[in-house]
Amino acid sequence: MRVEDLAPVCINQCDDALSGCTPAGTLDATKQPQRVTRTQPSGHYALLRTRVCIGVLAIVLASCSSTHKSAPTDAVTTLMAASAQSGRASFATLRGAMTAEGQDQVVVSGEVDFKDREAMLTLAPTPGMGTYPPYEARFVDGWSYVEIEAGVRRPPTVRADARWIAFQQKPAYLPVPDRSLPPEFPIFLIGLPRTQPAMSAQFIDPPGTDPRRLSVRFGRGIYSGSDFTYGIDKGGRIVSVSDVVRSDQQGSRFTLVYGNGVANVVAPSGGVQRLTPGENLYPTPTTASTG
Fold this sequence. Notes:
Elements: E1 9-10, H1 42-67, H2 75-86, E2 92-100, E3 103-113, E4 118-125, E5 135-140, E6 143-147, E7 164-167, E8 173-174, H3 185-191, E9 199-203, E10 212-218, E11 226-232, E12 238-245, E13 250-258, E14 272-274
Parallel strand pairs: 7-14
Antiparallel strand pairs: 1-8, 2-3, 2-13, 3-4, 4-5, 5-6, 6-7, 9-10, 10-11, 11-12, 12-13
């Protein structure tokens, strides 16, 4: 297959369901027991001291139970806690692929700042699946930027000097040579357990497995037709996630490695063509490349 014969592809759909999610707070028991001085005659002091010691012990135990809560044991609570903790990370490297019927089709790599909601991905063909060069996709300040692949024929709606297409509402087609996905998709996947209704989850692996996987389904909504698998490490962070649409067996899989620092993601400085909400680069069948 030649690059110049490639048609524009439909971009995978996902909703940005993370805005407004705030990690749950924790209770901090800081009240200190007051010191008790001897004010009673000696005959009453032992009883008073015993009562005071019991009271102080109860306060200490209550404080410990409040500040050192045990890790959640049920699958849904575990996953929601891991989603919140992972969402506070400022740096993670990502590797994975877009898949079809269990086979990798497009290789994806990059880095993500979950806390500030920024991502930079590189997409490339799986060996044997294509010959086009890698291209980038970035998500910065609420805008998605997708690099225009030089080998794909441009529709007349794309400016001659444009090297990037920027959008906040995903268009149906983009001038890229293969299946694509919004660059914010990894951020979306990590936050999904905190935003979707009617979630059910079951552990796949026994306790002590690192990472421990969970199978997840959503009871209603646009994601009710997909199967999700999340992997959570002993530190309580999501380190792997995959999704498969049951109807066509297309999906994606990613692994994450967290690190220190902040992901270095910046918006392209030039050659950017911004789309208005609802704008379509291929408004009619006659303007879209047929390959």
